[in-house]
Amino acid sequence: MATDGEISTKDDRAKGEAPTPKRSAGRGLYILGFFLLLCGPIAYGIEAISFEHLTVPWYMPVLGVIGLLLMIVATVRRWSVLRIFGLLLFGLLPFGEFLFLWSHSLLPKYDGPIAVGKPLPDFEIELASGDPFDNTDLLDGSATVMVFFRGRW
Fold this sequence. Notes:
Layout: H1 10-14, H2 27-49, H3 59-77, H4 81-90, H5 92-104, E1 124-126, E2 132-134
Antiparallel strand pairs: 1-2
């Protein structure tokens, strides 16, 4: 009699028992890895569209790397052309996620502090209301306080 995970033998079939197919080694790990790999971008899309609240999605590449590692373990347990193709195709996703975070975390070049008595350099920004604001808006003579915050929200 065949136990779980074994293929039944000729003797088992002679006794009238149905053959028990062997489960593919690592299939569950591969599917879990694939799911984790896609969870990061899906969660970020839901966060950006539904909640209209953007944060730095550090969870995205972390989930991608964990998912990729699970897919690698599953492929080492039992390799197939489809699993290797999936690794090659989806293995680039965590790399792209890290590249996305790195490129969006770069700060603009810092030219040094604004010195007292020197004219303010030309600039143009967008206010929180969406209206444009530039250095000519400061020339109307009203008292103005400017706070320079170097960083990202």
